[in-house]
Amino acid sequence: MSEDSAQKSRRVAEGARQREWTQPSFGRELFLGRLRLDLIHPYPRPRPEEVEKGEAFLGRLAKFLESVDPLQIERDSRIPDQVIKGLASLGAFGMNIAEEYGGLGLSQVYYNRALQLANSAHAALGALLSAHQSIGVPKPLKLFGTDEQKHRFLPRLARGEISAFALTEPDVGSDPARIHASAVPTGDGSAYILNGTKLWTTNGTIARLLIVMAEVPAGEGHPGGITAFVVESDMHGFKVLRRNAFMGLRGIENAVLEFKDVRVPKENVIGKEGEGLKIALVTLNTGRLSLPATNLTAAKACLRIVRNWANEREQWGRPIGKHDAIAQLLADISASTFGMEAVVELSGALADQERNDIRLEAALAKLWVTETVWRTADQTMQVRGGRGYETAESLKARGEQPIPTEQIMRDLRVSRIFEGSTEIMRLFIAREAVDRHLEVGGELLDPELDLKKRTRAAAGAAAFYARWLPSLTVGKGRVPTSYREFGKLARHLRYAERNARKLARSIFYGMSRYGPKLEFKQAFLGRLVDIGAELYAISAACVYARMLAEDNSKSGNAYELADLFCRQSERRIEVLFDALWHNEDARNYKAAQSMLDGRYRWLEEGIIESWGVLPPIAEPLRQAG
Ligand SMILES: Cc1cc2nc3c(=O)[nH]c(=O)nc-3n(C[C@H](O)[C@H](O)[C@H](O)COP(=O)(O)OP(=O)(O)OC[C@H]3O[C@@H](n4cnc5c(N)ncnc54)[C@H](O)[C@@H]3O)c2cc1C
Fold this sequence. Notes:
Blueprint: H1 3-16, H2 26-31, H3 48-65, H4 70-76, H5 81-90, H6 108-121, H7 123-135, H8 138-144, H9 147-159, E1 163-166, E2 182-185, E3 191-202, E4 209-216, E5 225-232, E6 238-243, E7 254-265, E8 269-270, H10 276-287, H11 290-312, E9 314-315, E10 318-319, H12 324-353, H13 359-384, H14 386-389, H15 392-397, H16 405-413, H17 422-433, H18 435-445, H19 451-471, H20 490-514, H21 522-551, H22 558-581, H23 585-597
Parallel strand pairs: 1-4
Antiparallel strand pairs: 2-3, 3-7, 4-5, 5-8, 6-7, 9-10
Helix pairs in contact: 3-6, 6-7, 6-11, 6-12, 7-10, 8-10, 10-13, 11-12, 11-13, 12-13, 12-21, 12-22, 13-16, 13-17, 13-21, 17-21, 18-19, 20-21, 20-22, 21-22
This protein binds flavin-adenine dinucleotide.
Flavin-adenine dinucleotide binds at residues 131, 164-168, 173-174, 200-202, 246, 249, 254, 414, 417-418, 421, 423-424, 427, 522.
């Protein structure tokens, strides 16, 4: 990418960034060194009517899901029509839509739990329902649509007309600045003519309504820029070019879509011209909570699989769960699943409470849960041994239980890629984490500003840091009696408080050491974010366990799990802090460039060139470098 293009991408992303923070944010405070427990504790409780409605729906959904045959979906790579119809008649396409528009109006917590449940029948169901309403038309419409648009579209969507979200293009993945799809205003101003190709649109083959991002050229009366349109699939010029197939998520209706001179009335523009990227990003901000919820399904399934198998399977004279190496995995799976549940439940509850801005918590949840559950699935496969690697269909044919361990891994893997890849989530969170520093010292770091401005910025920064830095040396985490009401979990909250301050200090040291180059220190920033994510998970685990204990609704051993989880998390945090300053980042980066330049090409020798469709090793070997 040329420097110009990189700058444009940054400028566009920055322009679409939601800058204002009108509500408090636990995540934001954490990166500033303040463990604002008051923002998440007392645990935000659902209202009784939300619980009643939610539980009733979960009951109906669970009953319906018993009729779904997961093996059939896996075999046919298709969700049967009657399953989609059944879901529609239950109202599952309107879970997230307000009752006044014919939806169920479930709270975020119950919406998450419903997705979790649907996902347990087959992951394609979770993908279908969440692409439809977590990122599909209902979400941006709810956030940015006019009343007229809501009345026009939401009842249809709630009834089961399926929707999709089309942002990605062949050339546009993580970097939406390069969007090619265009929407040119008609001469009379009544419509836009949409042209372009969209890639990997989930539900694309079956969607009736799509939210499509396209670039409007600037012109008279048109500010232009990336804009969000509602497109109907029967509009002339819309075509499904092909259905895509993937490693997992068989049954997902994902497509390449073509828009050829599609006339979209101006009434179908959501928000204003030029607001499309912001709309897409804000939609994803909360839409992101669905993925951790569906990933939690996998974690729970893993837990159940390993409990049964590690008890039942005997090798070397004992159940495998009694062998220390396997027991270590079982403990990690148990504690991590508790941590994931705590993060999913708390993040959903915070969204429902509407007191906090949860964009960072949702991003932390997405990043942390999708990464953690991948480790859980891998450990589960190890515990299952050869049976973990065998397909459910094959196991069944041999007369064994069709436990789909390999399918869980295949279905999960994409979670670390879509709806904001792990790398992009880390950058997104890091940007917010250093935002306060850029606000107070940004001009100081800008080499293009004149000396006068930079001197003024330096004075402002000095005043801020003179107050802020000392505040990071003392806190409740140093007082042994703090957080006493959490019993044996108090020590973990004290740890979180102390280490939130250490995290903030580390961000400050990073800013001082790297200056404007910090932006490019992705490995360093990634570790800071991962520490923040673990601290969020520790905090969530403690308040969630406390709430469960208060309710006595679940097993009294939630404290035990939370304690174990926090201890494991703290070990990960120690490693991350250490690696901030002791690492091979610079050497690794250099080696990667050498590899890209072909210096290690000789290492690729010894396999046939046509293996799969590998690109040929164009030049003679062992000569480079
Ligand atoms: C099954 C599936 C369903 C999908 N559903 C939808 C959908 O419904 N709607 C839709 O619009 N899209 C959808 N997508 C697209 C998905 O959101 C993209 O795959 C994702 O945004 C990543 O884009 P990309 O694959 O082009 O990767 P790229 O952007 O090309 O990135 C490749 C790698 O480079 C990393 N990378 C990129 N930029 C940076 C950077 N600046 N710094 C560090 N690392 C970087 C990425 O993290 C990734 O690891 C779907 C994809 C799949 C596979």
